Amino acid sequence: MEELSIENRLIATLNIKGQWEYRPDLNTVEKLWDNLRDILNKNNVAQLNGIPLDDKEFEQIRNKLTFATNFDAAKYLIGQNGIAHVDIKRDGKPIILDLFYRNQTFNKTVYQIVHQVQIPKRAGMDKDRRFDVTLLINGLPLIQIELKQQAVSENEAYEQIKKYEKEGSYYGIFRFVELFVVSNASVTKYFAAGTFDDISKTHLTQWRDKGNNIVTNLDDFTNLVLKRPMAYDMITRYTVLEEDKPTGTKRIITLRPYQIHAIESIVDASGLSLSGYIWHTTGSGKTLTSYKAARNLVNDIPSIKKTIFLVDRKDLDQQTSGAFLAYAENDVVDVKDTSATRDLRAKLYNEDKQLIVTTRQKLCLLIKELLREHENGMDKFYSVIKAKRIAFVVDECHRTIPPETMFEVRKFFQHCLWYGFTGTPIFQENKYENNGYALTTDELYGKLNGEGKQNCCLHKYTIENAIKDGSVLGFNVTYVGSNDQDKDNQENWNSETHMLNVIKWIISTWNIYGLNNGAGNTFESILTVPNIKIAQKYYELFKKVKAGEFQNQGIFVSKRIKETLPDFPKFAISYSLQDDNNDDTDKLYYNKDEMKKSIEDYNKIFETKCSIEN
After folding, report:
1. Cα angle, residue 381 at apex, residues 379 and 384 outer, rounded to 5°
2. Which SS3 state, helix, strand or coil, does residue 280 take?
3. In CA terms, which of 7, 115, 182, 415 is 20 to 30 Å from 319?
4. Do the beta carbons of residue 230 and residue 224 sit within 8 Å?
5. Mean pLDDT of all residues in the chain?
6. 221: Cβ contacts below 8 Å, ≥ 6 apart
7. Among the listed residues 427, 465, 432, 462, the one whose alpha carbon sits nearest the alpha carbon of residue 446
């Protein structure tokens, strides 16, 4: 299929039933500005007192809507209280006009398609340019689509956009572009707008449906992503502006499809008063997904008064609060962190719709305080806070809140919903016993459905999906040992004999670490085990093997390896001080003592000055 045919087919698909209005007459930059002027006049009749903008007034607007980068333009569209405004002066008095609405306003939101818009040549541009298909919302070009014939790779459309960005073609009104789409009709991808240095092939994303099936052709992509209201949501709900003030880094982030499906699944579940969990693999951007999910819950669900994002440690509280506050700075949501329990109390007591980031420990302490006050007849805070409808979004949901603690929180907040994020859900086959409390992820975050079955996984994106997408690095999987060994007999796997055999294989298979590459060019590896106790046992055995205590059993570092790396193997142990979500004090202190010893070893090996505190 030729390029022009693909363009016409796309326009026809978008134009069906008036989804988008096709405006073939808007084919120059000046005509786009005139179109914006018309829309401003129609959407602001009352503010303008029925008198349309004159040339000088619109020139004021053009000057105010001229930005150096796409990020700056996107930041301007965040606006205040969900509306981006632009002001003019008429007869010496200010008039504030509505420019863009973050929440879709049907009688004031205009959807238009333009085709082959001419971009005049500027300094640095080889020649005049034409943009294939552009989608305008309220007159602003927010989504730009570059197409190639089927015989040509979609990557050429990407390279074309890179070239346009480098030569400065996206200027003036086209600074408002936030999303690019490239396609050759057979393969379609999208990515966020940015500077020439920001745009990278690693950001090219293929759409996946909710079942993680890849959507490749342009027709399907158009129906799923570019039609209303999804195209509008891609800009207003599924785009994040990330600004790192210390480094000055600014970038537009468009969420990946699995993140969007997770967020939509949570909002849909909340509408049915159902809880659930998101199974997304480690490294897939859960912090950003959980932020947008928490943000949409408090913004979009009228019955939810507060969303609490729950973490399990002070350092994660500060880290997550920092990330959320940075995202919220360029968003329409009120994010609050909590420095102390009294701070959490005040934020839960007030009537503002807020997204609150806090720790499990602060929340539990507050509940104890409120219960104590209630027993003493002081119900001012107790009755108000207890009655609030709250959505809990839980990071690393099995580590953050143990089952018995979750039970106590649910008992207090009887009008609450729970949404957990995990990369490692717990099922019947791998659950562990804990004082009779529910321990599978389904039992903790859901309830029986109409058929008496429990399955509250709202969305799944596994390591297999992530590797295929290139979102995370792949694995080189090698199976060692007999497949006939009794896998259910934990004594086999946890015996010292088995552990020593594992260590022997690790230190003998020197080629997988690239030891022949020489010092500084070797690889690292991670040994994962079922629990902290087993990890500690492996750690002690590694120390003994390195010291030569098992040489008579044939388990030692070979002379060849020692000649290459005299200090091989360097190793360290890592685990949370809280043992397996169990607040057993004796175990906690034991693990703390063991960790101190491990850190002392680490400091000697790696010449550092680490401690539990830092």
Report:
1. 95
2. strand
3. 415
4. yes
5. 87
6. 181, 183, 188, 207, 215
7. 427
200: left (phi over 0), alpha (psi -120 to 50) or beta: beta
Distance CA 609, CA 614 (A): 9
Structure tokens at 388: 């609030």
Q: Is the pLDDT of residue 328 over 80?
A: no
106, 133 in Cβ contact below 8 A? no
Would you say residue 140 has pLDDT above 90? yes
Taking Cα atoms as reference points, which of 613, 518, 524, 511 lies closest to residue 572? 524
Cβ atoms of 50 and 141 closer than 8 Å: no
Q: What is the C-alpha to C-alpha distance for residues 195 and 73, in angstroms, rounded to an integer?
A: 13
Q: How far from each other are the two terminal CA atoms of the chain, in whole angstroms? A: 61
How far, in Å, CA of 250 to CA of 281, rounded?
26
Category of 120 on φ-ψ map: left (φ > 0), alpha (ψ -120 to 50) or beta: beta
**Span 171-176, average pLDDT:** 96
CB under 8 A, 24+ apart: contacts of 195-198: 195/69, 195/70, 195/165, 196/162, 196/165, 196/166, 198/251
Measured at the alpha carbon of residue 206, what is the angle toward residues 297 and 419, in degrees to the nearest 5?
Answer: 25
- 567-587: pLDDT as tens digits: 888 899 987 765 444 445 445
DSSP 357: E
State the Cα–Cα distance between residues 110 and 43, nearest whole angstrom. Answer: 10
Query: pLDDT confidence of 449, banded at 50, 70, 90?
Result: very low
Q: What is the DSSP string of 478-532?
A: ---S-TTS-TT-HHHHHSHHHHHHHHHHHHH-GGGGTGGG-TTS--------SSH
- Return d(Cα 16, Cα 18) in angstroms, integer: 5
Give CA separation, 227 vs 15, 135, 144, 224, 232, in Å.
9, 10, 14, 7, 8
Can you tell me the distance from the alpha carbon of 118 to that of 173, in angstroms, rounded to the nearest whole number?
13
Q: What's the rounded Cα separation, in Å, for the pair 61 and 70?
A: 17
Q: Answer yes or no: are the C-beta atoms of 173 and 36 closer than 8 Å.
A: yes
Place of tokens 């809280």: 578
The DSSP code for 303 is T
Q: Kindly tell me the sign of the dihedral angle through the C-alpha atoms of 177, 180, 183, 185.
A: negative
Where would I find the beta strands (DSSP E) of 312-466? 335-337, 354-359, 390-394, 416-422, 457-461
Nearest CA to 180 out of 191, 169, 171 is that of 191
583 touches 403 (CB < 8 A): no
Specify which residues 371 forms β-bridges with.
none
Which of 20-29, 95-104, 274-283, 448-457 is predicted with the least confidence, judged by mean pLDDT? Answer: 448-457
**Which residues face 207 on adjacent strands?**
215
- Per-residue tokens: 507: 């230190």
Residue 402 has a pLDDT of 83
Dist. CA 567–CA 190, nearest whole Å: 47
